[in-house]
Structure formats: C-alpha cells, structure tokens
Amino acid sequence: MKSRIALLVALFAAVPAVPMHAQTGAAMFRGGPTHTGVYTSPTTPTLGTLAWKFSTTGRFVSTPAVHGDVVFAGNTDGNVYAVDAQDGALKWKFATNGPVSSSPAVSNGLVIAGSVDGRIYAIDEAAGTVKWKFATAGERRFTAPGIHGGMPRTQLMADPFDLFMSSPIVDNGSVYVGSGDHNVYALDVTTGALKWKFETGDVVHASPAVANGTVFVGSWDSYFYALDAKTGALKWKFATGRDTVIYNQVGIASSAAVVGNKVYFGCRDGFLYVLDVNTGALKWKHDNNHGWVIGSPAVTDGTVYFATSDGTRFKALDAETGAVRFSNVNKAISFSSPAVVNNAVMFGTSDGWLHSIDRATGKILAEFQTDGSKANAAKYTDAEGRMNSALLYPDFTLEGMFVGLNRMFTLGSVLSSPVVHNGVVYFGSMDGGLYAVR
Asked: I need a surface site. Which of 63, 67, 307, 349 has the fewest CB within 10 A?
C-alpha cells in the first residue's frame, strides 16, 4: 500500500456516423437510464467559442440536463436553475434547503433532483414550482476513522472527496435514486409515492442505471448490487476491494453503464469492473494502480472510456477484453464522467479544463479553460501546468484536506460531466459558472 503522502499527492495531483448506443431525447445523468454517456449532435463542438456563461455565487458539482431549449442544473447555493440554452438567460430557480450536488432528470414535465437537505424534489419544468417532494432519512458523507491517513488516526471523519450525491434516473414510470441514508429508492414519478426501498451497508451516492427490468448501483459498503426494478428484490451482489486501514481504497462512487450483457463501473479500490448483467460474474477488471475511478465510464462501439484520479490518466479499453487501446496522462485528477459525441470524447479535470480528444487515437482535439483556472492556475500549478499538491494541502489533518480542496476549486475545477446538445457542450464549474461552449 502506498504511503499516506504518496496517496494524497497522487490523488490531488468532418462528422462520422453517430456511435452505437447513443441515447436521444433522454434528459438525465449520462444521457439515459443505461448511462452509456453517448450523445448525438449534428456537429462536434470545437471548444473555440464561448456561447455564454451563467454565473452563480455557489459551485456546480451537478451535471446539467438539457431538455428542449432549457438547461437545468443544481448548485451548492441550494438552487436548481433553469437557463435558456440559447443565451444563458435565467428562466427560473427553485430553492431547496441544502446544496444540490445531484444531477437533475427531466421527465413527464418534471425536473427531479436531490438536495443535501435529504429530500428529492420534483419541480414543474415550465413554472419552477414544486409538484412533490420525498423525504429520505437524511443525507451524509461516507465516514471512517483517520480517513486517507488523516490525523488524528482514531477520529471518525467525513470523507472530503465524497462530493457527489446520487442522481435520479426515470424509467417506466419510476424514479430510482440512492441516498446517504444507505437506501436505494424507487418512487412514483407522478406522485413521489414510495414504491420500494432497498438498504445497503453504507452511503449510496452512485446513480442507479436501469436496463431490462434491473437496477444496477454501487454502495460505499464496497458492494455492487443488481435489484429487481419492480420490487427492489436483490438479484445478486458483487464484492469489490476493501481498505480498513485508512479507508482510501474502498467505496463505489462511479455510476454504472450497461451495454448488452455487461455492466461497467469504477471503484475507489483502483479497478474498473465489468460484470455479467444476469449473474454478477466477473468478466474482467482493469488495474489502475490504486487510481480511483470516480466518474462513470462511457461505452460505445466496443470501447470503454474513463478517467482516473491517482495517476491522472484517461483510458480507452476494449469493452470485450479490457485490452488497453490508449492511456493518456492528464495534468490533474479527474472526477468528471466522459461524454462521447461523433469522433470526440470530452471530459473535465480538476485544474479547470475541459478536454476533447479523438475517441479512436486519444489525440487532443481541443481544450477549454474556465475563468477560475485563468485567474488562479499560477498559484497551484507548476511551470508545465501540472497541479502541485504540495501547494494545495497544508497538512494531513481533515481540516487540511478541506483547505486543499477549496484551494483546488478556485481553479474552476470541472467535476460536472459535459453534455452535448445541438453542437454545444454544456458543463458546470466549481468557479460558479455554467458554461455553454461551441
């Protein structure tokens, strides 16, 4: 196992045919219930033109959803925003009682999102008024003693890097969502009434994927679950790695992608897993040398794409065998989930950049820098533009980790995942901006 210092430094450190598995008309996290992360667009954004930026006083962890001519996104200031997709003008905002780090789903005239206040809200898509709300038993972060080697080692600590809430998925009249109260919920999309709930052993902040009557979701208890979509009954579960020393290499924050008879997901134990959807049997797994896979993989045309934190890699693997097709080194860690559109794959990094690479070769096509990165990159990056963890984190206490994260966020970190619609890529930044880039 790596030393505490090594672990922390590494962590913070012409349009072709539309790809298979593209999900159209679905406005929710990763493009639809199966979470393949593939989008259709008549053109591929070149990242050369800022169409608009909508500014807030909070931060965007939430991934936007685009439905019709409106972009919907949650913010840490407690609001869900509806913004005109053409010019970035505010249409409405809806206030919850806590930060909204859940990505909204738009369905049946409703915008559905979760808040740290422990409630799932269904908001009228046109008016911005509440239609129903559902109270869970409450939100919380994953906690463990001396997490990531922090001092004091015996103190129970909330994990600073448990940044995302579960994003709701709508399928066949039901809303599926995880919660910090350890449960996976199925709610009626029209009324918010509880259909069923399933209790795991810890926080559920991954977003459920739904395919062929099965809900697939991971928990911070280290298990990945397959549940009956109608009843919530357990079909099977799969155990990933455990770390009961400093609780660094444990927990599933990555949401799954389902293609054919395989389900793909990442884990903080440093592996990307591929399981049989019917039995949970391991097909293959890929070793990322302790690198967390927080973002959700994108899968199309026989290739799976994902980013890592430790090692700062972006990888493309053969979806059938796990063979490496390319492995790029980034200048910073990435928690953003990739979006595939035409010939490109787009993803964000924590130094405030959005990247577009060729999905066949991994070659960089274009990059876009957020305003936060432009203003503050020189403070925390080296001469080559690589994030310098020694400048970010003052010590190995829990407080030091939060200080380091907040410093990193001043770079306009792109934790939000890009969404491509009609030749424009939309994404949120920790500098408080919701960006639309052509």
From this structure: 67
The predicted pLDDT at position 311 comes to 83
Q: Is the pLDDT of residue 131 over 90?
A: yes
Contact 63, 80 (CB under 8 A): no
Dihedral-angle region of residue 222 (phi above 0 means left; psi in -120 to 50 means alpha; beta otherwise):
left
Q: What is the pLDDT of residue 1?
A: 38
Full set of structural domains in the chain with CATH:
4-437 (2.130.10.10)
146, 154 contact by CB (below 8 A) = yes
Looking at residue 296, what DSSP letter applies? P
**Rounded distance, CA 434 to CA 293, Å?**
24
Share of the chain above pLDDT 90, in %: 92
The torsion angles phi and psi of 378, rounded to 5 degrees, stand at -65, -25
Cα–Cα dist 164/181, whole Å: 14
Report the alpha-carbon distance of residue 198 to residue 177 in Å, rounded: 11
Let me know: does 348 contact 63? Beta carbons within 8 Å. Answer: no
DSSP secondary structure of 263-285: EEEE-TTSEEEEEETTT--EEEE
Cis peptide before 394 (omega within 30 of 0): no
Which H helix or E strand runs over 6? helix 4-12
DSSP β-ladder status, 194-199 and 169-171: unpaired
Q: Are 373 and 352 in contact (CB under 8 A)?
A: yes
Q: Residue 301 in contact with residue 315, Cβ under 8 Å?
A: no
Please state the rounded mean pLDDT for residues 174-189. Answer: 98
Tell me if the pTM is above 0.85: yes
- Rounded distance, CA 233 to CA 182, Å? 16
**Tokens at 33, concatenated:** 């219930």
Residues 6+ positions from 181 with CB-CB distance below 8 Å: 118, 136, 137, 138, 139, 140
What pLDDT, on the 0 to 100 scale, is given for residue 383? 87
Q: Give the C-alpha distances (Å, rounded to integers) separating 236 from 100, 215, 248.
A: 31, 11, 25
State how far the alpha carbon of 216 is from the alpha carbons of 123, 175, 255, 375, in Å. 26, 13, 9, 41
